[in-house]
Amino acid sequence: MTTAVIDETEAARRERLWEESRRVQGVSLGQDAWRRFRRDRVSMLSLVFLLGMGILAIATPLLPLQSPRLVKVDQKFQPMKFRPLFAPTAAWLDDAGKINEAKLDECFGELNVVNDSLIKLRAAIFGRWEVTSWLGTDHLGRDQLARLFWGARVSLLVGVVAGLVSLVIGVSYGATSGYIGGWVDSAMMRVIDVMYSVPFIFIVIFLITVLSEESIKKWLLEHGIDRIVIFYVVVGAIYWLTMARVVRGQVLSLKQQQFIEAARTVGCSRARIIFVHLVPNLLSIIIVYLTLTIPRVMLFESFLSFLGLGVEPPDVSWGLLANEGAKNITPIGIVWWLIVGPGLALGLTCAALNRLGDGLRDALDPRLKNR
Amino acid sequence: MSGTVASPNLGSSSSTTAAPLLEVRDLKVHFPFKRGTFLKPERGFVRAVDGVSFTLREGETLGLVGESGCGKSTTARACLNLVKPTSGEVLFQGRPIHGLGDREMLPLRSEMQMIFQDPFASLNPRMTVGKIVGEPLSIFFGGSSRRDRELEVMRLLELVGLNPRFLNRYPHEFSGGQRQRIGIARALAVRPKLIFCDEPVSALDVSIQAQVVNLLEDLQQKLGLAYVFIAHDLAVVRHICDRVGVMYLGRIVELGTAEDIYGDPRHPYTQALLSAVPEADPAAERRRKRIVLKGEVPSPDKQYPGCPFADRCPIVQDVCKQSPPPLVQIENAAARHAAACFFARDNKTVRLL
């Protein structure tokens, strides 16, 4: 009887302690790093710039922009002009505000559900009003500003998706190789060495050529696989090599740490050690390296699009825009507004990402900064 | 420093279980190495542990002492299957652990645990205390809810003298002594019978050392734990251990109760080791005679035909360089007091203790 009472009060006491423990939250290394990062003005500015860019890219269909595809031959090579700022000229809406599906398709291509509803929302908000060609028009009279925005969607998406693909492959591969060690490690690293020695441009050209073949293309489209999607995966699958090496090197030094041995002692499985104990401790280096991989991937995409191997017209990306701009630099006349826009966008984004990576490294590992 | 309380099991044949808790038979751990140039490679083995045998009963504390690199920690790691033994046997309650895979090792891991030397490196900096201590719980009692786990973790934190409200804090928010307590709580989480303490106090301040040693003693009384206590601090070992094994170059050179080892050391290495312990009393300290060993610790990557201590031994004779002396009971010493020296019988010293 008495013991039961004691047990009950003991349980109640534990309950109370547990409730109290909820209020005593520790400061994790991540929170600590965030506090340091916030003090770094330039990095914060870069972050804000990139976030703004990302939000604008996602919200592009919602903005009152012209069509990035609609050809208006009579308005080709219009220079930058800000007057009037807006005009009720949206060709895919009639006067009553009803959407003309055929015209819409011509203006924006095939739209998925999200973009379609965003466009409808835009029609409801802005009606036929859209911005005039602030940044001028290209050789087919297409609005440069709209093309920049729609191009940002592709370029940023390539960067993020290919970066993530490289992250997932690289981290899993590198951590596994480094943790298992021995001949498995040697074999896995030799595979990477071999892949390093293969010229990527060649592989990409080969793959893109094969995938552009009519029957394969049709088959892929039937299964809902866009060429851009393949492009992401290909680029990501190429850029994981360095990530794998970096991660392996870190794992080699981390696995000597006592807490890994402690984890083995309490019976953690290999996968658990790798993904619960090793990878979170690699986070800082992974994040930093990711911010450096994304601009590389974006540049690679631009480069391929520039060569005509990447994104296919009528889709747009910054690289493709730069390509078109460069074509219009001729001895007869320079249409400078076609190259400055995409060039600046690409340059600023890459610079911001690099700066962000620097700031993150300083914030995540304060010891490195003072070395 | 209190005298050592002899374990009730020691030296009597009345122990209830036939098999000892832990039995180590001729354990060897050799690490292969390759050095030299590519054209003239030189292969060999570092004999980290080279024939260690001992037994441990339930609730008993065995100390392993010796200088750095003599294989104390490697012995513990081999017993826990963290490094693969080259040969020899480790039996836990009569069950051999040799060649067990990670999964087969799991039930044994709930019986044997380890406390690590460096309280700053042995806790994952990205996990909260609750997760660190709760991890073995979720591995061994997977089905329990997170809340139950946390309640159990809080009980463990209280048990090792930490504030249970600090469940959601991170290791870097604790002091060295507190972190070592977290490590102890983690080891206790699976309710083991045996804990290997790998120099658990050598990285701590002296005042904190005493606290942690007392905590370990309290836990032993409360939970009936057995310890294998690895240290190079002879005073701490004398305080906490029932029996002591002195290691030199991968072998146990003398094994006996703490009283016997400290009061009647027979192996010349043990004698030299003990003579290096400073005395608190200045008068005694001045009278203290030190046995100073000449030469360096020989390299563990060479094989010696005779006694590994022969090169530095003050009482060395020709026979020592021909065959290695076995670890055997000393004729005129207390029961279960063994030494690996041909002259242990006559090598008595008068200690000024």
Biggest sheet record of chain A: 2 strands, antiparallel
Which strand order do you get reading across the main beta sheet of chain B?
Answer: 6-7-8-3-9-10-12-11
Computed Rg of chain A = 26 Å
Low-confidence stretches of chain A: none
Structural class estimated from helices and strands of chain A = mainly alpha
User: Which structural class do you get from the secondary structure elements of chain B?
Assistant: alpha/beta
Give the CA-CA distance, first to last residue of chain B: 13 Å
DSSP strand tally of chain B = 12
Overall pLDDT of chain A, averaged?
83
| Assembly state | heterodimer
What is the topological layout?
The complex is a heterodimer of chains A (about 375) and B (about 350).
Chain A: H1 2-23, H2 29-38, H3 41-58, E1 86-88, H4 101-108, H5 113-126, E2 129-131, H6 144-180, H7 182-197, H8 200-212, H9 214-222, H10 227-254, H11 258-265, H12 270-307, H13 318-327, H14 337-364, H15 366-369
Antiparallel strand pairs in A: 1-2
Helix pairs in contact in A: 2-14, 3-6, 3-14, 6-7, 6-10, 6-12, 6-13, 6-14, 8-10, 10-12, 11-12, 12-13, 12-14, 13-14
Chain B: E1 22-36, E2 41-56, E3 61-65, H1 72-79, E4 87-92, E5 95-96, H2 102-109, E6 112-115, H3 129-140, H4 146-159, H5 176-188, E7 194-198, H6 206-223, E8 226-230, H7 234-240, E9 243-248, E10 251-257, H8 258-263, H9 268-275, H10 282-287, E11 328-329, E12 338-339
Parallel strand pairs in B: 3-8, 3-9, 6-7, 7-8
Antiparallel strand pairs in B: 1-2, 1-4, 4-5, 9-10, 10-12, 11-12
Can you describe what's shown?
The complex is a heterodimer of chains A (371) and B (353). Chain A has 371 residues and is mainly α. Chain A has a domain at 37-60 and 143-369: MetI-like (MetI-like fold). In chain A, 71% of the residues lie in helices and 2% in strands. Chain A has 15 helices and two strands. Chain A has helices at 2-23, 29-38, 41-58, 101-108, 113-126, 144-180, 182-197, 200-212, 214-222, 227-254, 258-265, 270-307, 318-327, 337-364, 366-369; strands spanning 86-88, 129-131. Chain A has a two-stranded antiparallel ribbon. In chain A, helix 10 (227-254) crosses helix 12 and helix 13 runs antiparallel to helix 14. The longest helix of chain A is centred in the last third of the chain and has 38 residues, at 270-307. Chain A is globular, with a radius of gyration of 26 Å. The N and C termini of chain A lie far apart (65 Å). In chain A, 35% of the residues are buried. The mean pLDDT of chain A is 83. Chain B has 353 residues and is of the alpha/beta class. Chain B has a domain at 266-353. In chain B, 28% of the residues lie in helices and 21% in strands. Chain B has ten helices and twelve strands. Chain B has helices spanning 72-79, 102-109, 129-140, 146-159, 176-188, 206-223, 234-240, 258-263, 268-275, 282-287, and strands at residues 22-36, 41-56, 61-65, 87-92, 95-96, 112-115, 194-198, 226-230, 243-248, 251-257, 328-329, 338-339. In chain B, the strands form two sheets. Chain B has an eight-stranded mixed beta sheet with strand order 6-7-8-3-9-10-12-11, with helices on both faces. Chain B has a four-stranded antiparallel beta sheet with strand order 2-1-4-5. Chain B is globular, with a radius of gyration of 21 Å. Chain B starts with 21 loop residues before the first strand and ends in a 14-residue tail after the last strand. Chains A and B meet through helix 1, helix 11 and helix 12 of A and helix 2, helix 3, helix 4 and helix 5 of B.
